[in-house]
Structure formats: C-alpha cells, structure tokens
Design a protein that fits this description.
two-stranded antiparallel sheet; single chain; Alpha-Beta Plaits; globular; 4 strands
C-alpha cells in the first residue's frame, strides 16, 4: 500500500501526522509522506488519515 499527499491541495492542518505519524510528517507548511510504502500494521491509520483530511489531499492505494 502506498500513500501520497497532493501538496498543492494540502492546507497544512496537521491532521494526518497526528493520526499516522509513521507515514506522514509536516514539511514546512504542508504535509508529506515519510515512507514509500505504508508499513505493515499502519494501513488502517493511513486510511483514517486520508478519510480525515478536510481537503481530500491524501491518496492511499
């Protein structure tokens, strides 16, 4: 499973790293992914982060 953040859409609210810090981090005023592949055991948290994004900037596939 991979996660990605559309940095042009991201508003930098910080929700995703607060939900799934093993995958997402703040990079300046926007979020980014820390890993290429979501670690085993963090899939549900990555999905929750994507669902919680207020601007739908996260894709998990």
């Amino acid at each position: 499973m991979k996660a990605s953040v559309d940095r042009d859409t991201c508003i930098g609210c910080g929700v995703c790293p607060s939900i799934c810090p093993s995958v997402f981090e703040m990079d300046g005023d926007r979020s980014s992914t820390k890993v290429d592949v979501v670690p085993e055991g963090d899939e549900n948290a990555a999905r929750e982060a994507a669902e919680s994004c207020p601007v739908e900037a996260i894709t998990v596939e």
